[in-house]
Design goal:
By secondary structure, the protein is an alpha/beta fold. It is built from eight helices and seven strands. The chain has a single domain, classed as Rossmann fold (3-Layer(aba) Sandwich), CATH 3.40.50. Strands 3-2-1-4-5 form a five-stranded parallel beta sheet. It has a two-stranded antiparallel sheet with strand order 6-7. It is globular, with a radius of gyration of 15 Å.
């Protein structure tokens, strides 16, 4: 079973000052230990490397990008025109939500790969009936298991 990774999780891993950094880092280590395959889109890659570039620095962005591009665990799925059109339909339909276009592409790709769980903390995924692997609450960044059967199924 693959796990989709949202931009927010990557940012939390890269930014040592992020409120979720330690908790996300701990979960990422568990995912690595259990060799759980990860999926992102080229749009998530772009969004993450750009955010890191402007908020943390070019060197950190290059290090992060290289680690993802060289990772055997992370698959970067390149969207095509059909995916863009499907995402555009979602984007237009859900005018009452604060979905980014990248969010909508992520939803389309997750549905296509039949992935129902995301590593991240963006509530938009639960709005679209995807499960968030971990949710974060409060000032202490306490991790709370959202989907125990996924964790048990992966040996976590």
């Amino acid at each position: 079973m693959k796990l989709f990774v949202d931009t927010g999780a990557w940012i939390a891993l890269a930014d040592k000052h992020d409120q979720y950094h330690q908790a996300t880092q701990k979960l990422y280590r568990l995912i690595q230990q259990h060799n759980i395959p990860l999926l992102i889109t080229d749009y998530v890659f772009d969004e993450t490397v750009t955010w890191i570039r402007y908020k943390i620095g070019h060197g950190v962005a290059c290090t992060w990008g290289k680690s993802i591009l060289n990772s055997r665990m992370v698959e970067i799925f390149t969207v095509n025109e059909a995916h863009i059109h499907q995402a555009w339909e979602l984007f237009q339909t859900y005018h009452d939500q604060q979905f980014s276009f990248t969010d909508c592409l992520s939803f389309v790709v997750m549905q296509m790969f039949e992935i129902d769980t995301v590593f991240g903390y963006d509530a938009h995924f639960s709005t679209m009936n995807f499960r968030i692997l971990f949710k974060f609450y409060g000032k202490n960044s306490r991790c709370v298991t959202y989907r125990k059967n996924f964790l048990v199924g992966q040996g976590l």
